[in-house]
Amino acid sequence: ARMTFSAQKCGVCFQPPSIILIYRDNVQGKTRQRIMPVRNFSRFSDCSRAAEQLKNNPRHKPYLEGVSLRQLEKLYSLLRDHLEGQSLSESLGRYHHEHTIDPEEDMNKLDDKELAKRKSIMDELFEKNRKRRDDPDFVYNVEVDFPQDEHLESCAWDTESDEEI
What we know:
Blueprint (H helix, E strand, L loop, with lengths): L4 E9 L4 E8 L4 E8 L9 H10 L12 H15 L4 H11 L13 H18 L26 H4 L6
Antiparallel strand pairs: 1-2, 2-3
Helix pairs in contact: 1-2, 2-3
């Protein structure tokens, strides 16, 4: 079963508050725009809950099939920040900071909720960069030669022999 609609772009409009979807109607072969008004949403609203409700709304569900829940959450987050008086650049900067993994961060010190959030971000990044068999640039067996002329750092466990264990 082929999808009837394929999402092209998704964005937010602040006045009036709405989510805008540019999609392709695969049956008619036309590109169309769908405006989904955001009602009963305030600066205290839960963005992930609002995104789930929109994605599962029977009127909008077929159109939003190709839009990730994370993207809808981001749009609601931008809308909430706008209601709090933040500029778009401030809001985007904050969102980027919150949804980027810092390689220097000690994740052992995070609580369960923050750790789950970081794992979700890493999973999404993995899926985005993952190569599948049907990708045009897929290579089955990749072999890489690493340069040997550079100074190699050694660790204590590198020098131990099997007999010492």
